[in-house]
From TrEMBL:
<protein>
    <submittedName>
        <fullName>EAL domain-containing protein</fullName>
    </submittedName>
</protein>
<feature type="domain" description="EAL">
    <location>
        <begin position="24"/>
        <end position="279"/>
    </location>
</feature>
Length: 285
């Protein structure tokens, strides 16, 4: 009966609002319904260790499953979720499912040291209870903090750097690794690396896709990998769409790679099968 009311509201509003606003409202209602009906789901995308070609971790990526089974991708709902205040609830579901998946994977014969990285929105970073929520989730699933990595973009750091610094130090004190996502895409302050306790750099896909066809991209990626090494950071290359790039990144001493050429994001059940068949090292070179 609650649903009928909502539907009535939608048609009343849509008659008076612009297309964009009604699309946003439709997305908001879809998100609320998905939270209610437990149709928020994580997909996992493998990360390959470039030293030996073994997959020891994955990134959790949020999807909304519509009632008809089709998927909504983050590009179509994250911004709306942030504006209508639903991001913290969605993020909490992602964190819980990620810890659940981690405990399943770590109990299987495949991945005793398996790690997952989880994306955090700027809003979540500014939640004062973040570290204690993360600690509680790890504890509920009997996981060490080293099983989890949290990914942030630079935008999360710039609007309130003092608060960000505090939250990140709390997370580091717990033992959770912090990754700087989409590195190089925004207003990259290299100073972020000085100020915040970051341990992983994820080089943005826009650099990776130009590798081997653009000498500037080659030089930039090689330089970033070298710099990260000097700083003691792990480097992950995101958005590997061509297999040849894996060899190129190995030659540059990049630590890990992630992208469609290795595997697309998939549900946990599929990842277990994928890991099983990928037990043999992936690298042919
Ligand atoms: P991201 O964290 O940089 O995640 C990588 C995105 O690139 C994912 O898109 C992934 O599916 C896509 N990708 C991976 N390999 C390739 C490739 O080889 N080629 C191309 N073209 N794309 C590739 P997705 O899943 O649509 O997520 C988009 C963004 O939405 C993420 O970018 C992240 O910023 C955000 N996001 C996803 N899940 C969550 C979440 O649980 N919480 C928060 N706060 N943000 C999330
Ligand atoms: Mg990410
Ligand atoms: Mg990224
Ligand atoms: Mg991105």
């Amino acid at each position: 009966q609650a649903k009928l009311h909502t539907r009535g509201d939608v048609s009343r509003y849509t008659a008076r609002m612009g297309d964009a606003a009604s699309a946003e409202l439709a997305t908001e209602l879809e998100l609320r319904a998905a939270l209610e009906d437990q149709r928020v789901q994580i997909f996992l995308q493998p990360r390959l260790d470039l030293v030996d070609g073994v997959c020891r971790g994955a990134e959790a990526l949020m999807r909304i499953r519509r009632a008809d089974g089709s998927l909504i991708l983050p590009g179509d709902f994250i911004a709306v979720a942030e504006r209508c205040g639903l991001m913290p609830r969605l993020g909490a579901v992602v964190l819980e499912q990620s810890c659940q998946a981690l405990s399943t994977l770590r109990r299987s014969s495949l991945g005793e040291d398996f790690r997952l990285s989880v994306n955090l929105s700027p809003l979540e970073l500014h939640d004062e209870a973040l570290a204690s929520r993360v600690e509680a989730a790890l504890c509920r699933h009997g996981l060490p903090a080293s099983a989890l990595e949290l990914e942030l973009t630079e935008t999360a750091l710039v609007d309130d750097p003092l608060a960000a610094e505090r939250r990140l130090s709390e997370l580091r004190a717990l033992g959770v690794a912090i990754a700087l996502d989409d590195f190089g895409a925004g207003f990259s302050g290299l100073s972020h690396l000085l100020r915040f306790p970051i341990s992983v750099l994820k080089i943005d896909r826009s650099f990776i896709e130009r590798l081997r066809s653009d000498r500037i991209a080659d030089a930039l990626v090689e330089g970033l990998v070298g710099m990260a090494q000097r700083l003691g950071l792990r480097v992950v290359a995101e958005g590997i769409e061509r297999h040849a790039l894996i060899t190129a990144l190995q030659a540059m001493d990049c630590d890990e790679a992630q992208g469609y050429a290795i595997a697309k994001p998939m549900p946990l059940e599929s990842l277990v099968g994928w890991l099983d068949s990928a037990r043999e090292p992936q690298l042919t070179a």
